[in-house]
Design goal:
The chain is of the alpha/beta class. Bound molecules: 2-deoxy-2-amino glucitol-6-phosphate.
Length: 615
Amino acid sequence: MCGIVGYVGHQKAEGILLDSLRRLEYRGYDSAGIATLSLENNLYQTEIRRAAGKLENLKVFVKKNPCPGNIGIGHTRWATHGKPTEKNAHPHQSNPITLVHNGIIENHLQLREQLLSQGLVLKSDTDTEIVAHLISAEKKNNHADFITATRAAVQQIKGAFALAILDENEPDIIICVKQSCPLIIGIGLGENFIASDFTAILPYTNQFIILEEGDMAVVKKDSILISNFYGIEQKRPIKFLDWSPSVAEKNGFAHFMLKEIFEQPVAITDTLRGRLSFAENRVVLDGVHLDKLKYINRICIVACGSSFHAGMIAKYQIEDLAKLPVELDLASEFRYRPVLVDAQTLVIGISQSGETADTLAALRHAQSKDALLLSICNTLESSIPRLCQHSAGTLYTRAGPEISVASTKAFITQIVVLQLLGLGLAQQRDQITEDNLTRQMNALLQLPTAVETVLQQDSHIQKIAQHFVSATDMLFLGRGALYPIALEGALKMKELSYVHAEGYAAGEMKHGAIALIDEQMPVIVLATRGHVYEKLVSNLEEVKTRGGRIIGILDENDDTLKSRCEFSIPIPIVTKSILAAVATVPLQLLAYHLANAKGLDVDQPRNLAKSVTVE
Ligand code: AGP
């Protein structure tokens, strides 16, 4: 939800800001803007360039109207307060202060009234502009310097905010403020960088400081001073990241999403590395404080979107393996309920980004009831793992940065680590035989190859997608652990193709959704062999009888069922424990190709953003 960047150093800021914003655009693309401080006639002045729409519009504008200077800030917006127009684009200014903001100022209405009553004229409809005026007012009314004025202003605002701030009168400083939104500082030689996440500035540095809640940093080209909002100095460690900058590039693929779909075999292999010990016949849950889980008697999973679907699969996996009851809640619901959790409950938060506001709040809610917290996360050092570090810890997926708004490789690796967790708990609770454990570990090892096999269907799936470009509705049906995959397939289709799609438990269809089926309705049926195969075949026939257009996701040798479908996508025959992961891949490709065939922007679907850091 909005990305912010900053640069101070010896190079021209403009190019670095625009380049960094390009890698952050997944966080929002309603508008973009940069501001620099440039020296003219011995006086610094603020140059602001903004444009509605995607970053490309800003680039065109900046090309015609360069933005000189060696210090600057930038922003890519996901609109919350105020329409996505140029007027509401960041940076916002109240001379001599200019700033960019990620988050929401919750008390902005009250502050707005206060400022209006002082005769101030506001130029935008945003909550952000208020903060610029507050700092500016502190400077003017109380003769405060930039740092003191900022400190006084942030003490007045409530909500979530990551800010990068410039002051025309103190032109060698960027002040950064972090409260409930991510913000990192990249360390260079005679230059420093600011960004909402690592990937934005990876080409420039691999040394970072991660700001913590309530931090305020004064960043110059050769120094970084961190204090809290009350001026007490804070020490933060420097972290090294060995990611290659190419992780945030498309590397020849048309879209990040396609690249990330094709990266899944490697992402799974990386996620499994070192976690299957055949020598000792056990799974290694690095990062999880297993000893703390000895006396848990139930699990609650909280997550949103695709991560929630991974949690649904985990319910099947963990209950089956560890014989522990697993409940599931949408994080946005859990956080506002008087939930019945206690010290014997393990609450698992699943999040690719580690920054999703609802999931973070749900975990905090559980923490307040003494529950144990564990996170499944893809982003190192993000807020959710940090919250869990002194509780049960974090089991990281190792998918690498996921840039596409639609989650693919993060989702599949979530399924993998949750299966590992199920095995680890089963072992700890003596619920699994040695033989079964070896079998289950071997099954996981087969997963990358099985996914490779499905990826070979890419052009076949692309051709199928062409037949459905004018579809307005779709149904996805599955049973057991393939029911969450039906939901995930429908979510991918909705968010990318803007097709109204619904995932259904196949057995539930006859209780209502069957009324939707006519000759126009594409129905994707996940009908691999298993203990409910016959039931699924019956459900498929029910659809066929009513004229629905069936796309079957079938076992590769199931010629009988293939003959009953208009189209079919064969997937390799795999054991039940990895079937959900394998079956998700054709649905990712189907949604991708359909959106692409419709000419839609696959990596940046309308109205969405990758990290949902607002409620
Ligand atoms: C899925 O394609 C979406 N990007 C979305 O549903 C996502 O899974 C959800 O917002 C949760 O994000 P998180 O995993 O980063 O918490």
